[in-house]
Design brief:
This protein has about 325 residues and is of the alpha/beta class. It has two domains: about 120 residues, NAD(P)-binding Rossmann-like Domain (Rossmann fold), CATH 3.40.50; about 180 residues, Dihydrodipicolinate Reductase, domain 2 (2-Layer Sandwich), CATH 3.30.360. A nine-stranded mixed beta sheet has the order 14-13-12-11-7-10-9-8-15. A six-stranded parallel beta sheet has the order 3-2-1-4-5-6, sandwiched between helices.
């Protein structure tokens, strides 16, 4: 299969890692997806493994090469525009989250998808880490019963971000960019749909990063009166041992499971104390997507989930902007 990259800003490593030990598929070209975006560094790295072309215009690249799959990972405010161009050509789409940074653009992408024959998945790759796959496995096996309450965390080091992070128009907001991962975990692990959200966010202490929100808090109500919260920040110290600190605690009517520091802990009526669970094997999100494209089973992330989580993140940002409860 012929694969092209539009942009080099997002998680292009998912594509590269998903193609390791895969000799059937190859990256054939790369082009920037945003004005001022440079793809030169990634192009030079990929040249070591692939005989690929570099284009200045991704539309020209799509029309000339007619690829089977396009991965979109440019500046976040341009995801939707590139996604529509891909879908309008019936090319299968692997797209960085958020799929869009406005609800109107999200509707445009969804409409293009529904008119196409394309497959689509957003880059919610953290699902595929062993600790989250393990939590999912035990929840689905009934280890904690019905999910009632969830508390998730996404914490990053801020560092010095590119200029496009400093404007809402090009960045899209911290809730859609950082928080969407944790929002995805909650709907995926619980199997429940969103009903409402109330959120807040702040730019205070963003170290001269303009409109970038450095902290946020979201409260979601789900079906069956389940509830979930997400706390999001760029306040992790620069000398922390890792860039991120991902956590989630899920309480059911029969037990509690927690993902903490890349480990999983379970307590329920059948276990004495807090038991650390053996981790299942890591999976690669792009390899999973390609298997789906080829007709070898389903992708763990569906197009419907990709759209719904994006909508939830954008509604949470809207709630924080307007300081009011938003109903889905």
């Amino acid at each position: 299969m012929k694969i092209v990259l539009i942009g080099s800003t997002g998680h292009t490593k998912y594509v590269v890692n998903g193609l390791k030990d895969n000799y059937e598929d190859e990256i054939v070209a790369i082009a920037p997806g945003s004005e001022g975006e440079s793809v030169e560094d990634l192009y030079q790295k990929l040249k070591l493994d692939y005989d690929l072309k570099k284009y200045d215009d991704y539309i020209e690249m799509l029309d000339e090469l007619k690829p089977d799959v396009a991965a979109v990972a440019c500046h976040f405010g341009d995801h939707a525009r590139a996604a529509v161009e891909v879908l309008n050509r019936n090319i299968d789409l692997f797209v960085e989250k958020p799929i869009a940074t406005t609800l109107a653009e999200l509707a445009e992408v969804k409409s293009a998808y529904e008119k196409s024959d394309s497959k689509l998945a957003a880059m919610f790759g953290i699902r595929y880490n062993p600790w989250f796959l393990t939590a999912y496995k035990y929840i689905k096996e009934g280890a904690i019963g019905e999910v009632r309450l969830m508390n998730a965390q996404k914490s990053y080091r801020l560092g010095q971000r590119e200029d496009f992070y400093k404007k809402r128009e090009t960045y899209g907001g911290t809730i859609p960019w950082v928080g969407s991962h944790a929002i995805d975990w909650m709907q995926w692990l619980s199997g429940k749909d969103f009903k409402s959200v109330y959120a807040s966010h702040s730019t205070i202490a963003n170290q001269n990063h303009g409109e970038l929100e450095v902290s946020a808090l979201c409260h979601f109500d789900f079906e069956d009166q389940a509830a979930g919260s997400v706390n999001i920040d760029y306040l992790r110290p620069q000398n922390a041992t890792s860039h991120d600190d991902d956590r989630i605690r899920i309480a059911g009517d029969k037990g509690v499971i927690e993902v903490l520091k890349e480990k999983v802990y379970l307590i329920n009526d059948e276990i004495e104390g807090n038991r650390e669970l053996p981790l299942v094997k890591k999976k690669e999100i792009f390899a999973d997507f390609l298997d789906w494209v080829k007709g070898n089973g389903d992708c763990m992330i569906t197009a419907e989930e990709s759209f719904r989580v994006t909508e939830a993140a954008l509604q949470a940002r809207r709630s924080a902007d307007q300081k009011k409860l938003i109903q889905f």
